[in-house]
Design goal:
Strands 1-2-3-4-5-6-7-8 form an 8-stranded antiparallel barrel. The chain contains 2 helices and 8 strands; from the N terminus they run ααββββββββ. It is elongated and about 70 Å long. With 256 residues, the protein is mainly beta. Helices cover 6% and strands 47% of the residues. The chain has a single domain (11-245), classed as Porin (Beta Barrel). Strand 6 (179-193) and strand 7 (200-214) form a beta hairpin. It has helices at 11-20, 26-31, and strands at residues 36-50, 59-69, 74-85, 114-131, 141-159, 179-193, 200-214, 230-245.
Length: 256
């Protein structure tokens, strides 16, 4: 039997190395601002305003981001956020499919079950600055960012047991009102890089302004296309866990 564990770096060693990297340069973090690559996992909670508020309630956004922080404390990054929410205000889009009791009949002549919620995403880039105010080291402080990208949202239609033909396959596209367009965003908060390397995070307020269009050719509930420009706004807070990756300076040598 061949022992594959000898001569190779195992998964445990890789995971340990990744989580120890933030601790490798504590002297640098404490004393001076340095270049670093950050991998972030973020969560946002938002209130809607504008046209999107007529369709959805509060929503959440979760996803990864990668950013580079220059030693001048300028940061540039890319991010992706998956949007989901449970409150749908526009509940009448399937009314024409209901019978006199207010139910939709499935292919077996029984009452079908349909759940409608919000889904979507944001993808974009950003640029910002960390201002070392009230900070334990030059790599922490007030975090200011602006960004631009694509914001999309739609009605997620889930048919239990997939037995209502009117909302299956391509027919579902006529009801989901998939909407997307250019979005701007702003963030103001606090960026903390732990001098001991244990807890690294940022948290603050963020705001989205999006100019979107319905991308479906026809809405089945009205029998008409929707070509109007929409103004969608989100505002709320975001927190992010930061995994900083940076190189340790070589140990100094002294000669006598």
């Amino acid at each position: 039997m061949i022992d594959l564990t000898k001569g190779f770096i195992g998964l445990k060693e890789v995971i340990l190395l990744v989580f120890l990297m933030p601790v490798m340069a504590l002297a640098q973090v404490n004393d001076t601002s340095i270049n670093m690559l950050n991998v972030n996992l973020t969560y946002g909670f938002h209130m809607p305003d504008g046209d999107i508020a007529e369709r959805f309630g509060v929503s959440s956004m979760v996803g990864p981001a990668v950013e580079f922080k220059h030693k001048s404390n300028w940061i540039i990054g890319l991010e992706f956020g998956y949007v989901f929410g449970g409150t749908l205000k526009q509940t009448d889009i399937l009314d024409h499919l209901k019978d006199e009791t207010g139910n939709i009949i499935n292919e077996y002549g029984e009452y079908g079950t349909i759940l409608m919620t919000e889904r979507g995403f944001y993808a974009g880039g950003s640029i910002g600055k960390i201002i070392p105010v009230l900070a334990p080291n030059p790599n922490s402080g007030i975090r200011l960012q602006i960004g631009a990208g694509l914001l999309e949202h739609h009605i997620h239609i889930e048919n239990k047991d997939n037995n209502i033909p009117a909302v299956l396959g391509d027919y579902k596209n006529g009801y989901d009102q998939r909407t997307n367009g250019l979005s701007m965003k702003e963030f103001i908060g606090y960026h903390f890089l732990d001098p001991k390397g244990y807890i690294n995070f940022f948290a603050g307020l963020e705001f989205y302004q999006a100019w979107t269009y319905n991308r479906r050719n026809l809405n089945y509930d009205t029998g008409l296309p929707d070509n109007e420009l929409k103004h969608d706004y989100l505002y709320g807070f975001r927190v992010g866990w930061i995994l900083p990756l940076y190189r340790k300076n070589p140990d100094p040598f002294y000669y006598y």
